Amino acid sequence: MSWAFFVPFPAVLAASRMTRNSIIPAWLLAWWPAILWAGLIFFLSTDTFSAGHTGSVLGQVLRWLAIPLSRAHFELLHHLVRKSAHFTEYFIFYLLLYRGIRGERPGWRWSWAFLAWLIAAAYSTLDEIHQSFVASRTASAWDSFLDSVAAFFALLILFLIYGPSRRPRPASPNLTEPATP
After folding, report:
1. Domains in the chain: how many in total?
2. Does some domain include residue 56?
3. Residue 42 pLDDT > 80, yes or no?
4. 90 near 124, Cβ under 8 Å?
């Protein structure tokens, strides 16, 4: 499986070009995945995904797999799973934000990358504020920091994919010289 499937979602962009005359605006075609993902992040910040609930699900899965763990090891595993989820959700969120900002434009721009990172970092802060209003959740500046680091890692991955491979624009043809066969 290639990275092209995930970044910058060429099939979706190609579909957006084909539906240019449709009633769906081009900006919505570019932004709908990021908007949906932001909604998913908001849902994951509710009581349903609190540590108490995810811990019981993880415990049932481990019992079903017949993996015996001490309480300390279970709590460490649960902590790692939850922090990995934070990292993964904001890594993906950054990619979707970059896709939305980039739209149909080709290439890499630092301004797009920084803006996507800024939006992801701001949303992670708002997410933690949201969690402070949920009785079974706690707000954590460290979680917001982890989310921002995840977005930064996604920025680095995109830079490694697109940044160094930037090709100079071809020179415009000289109209004063005759074309050679």
Report:
1. 1
2. no
3. yes
4. yes
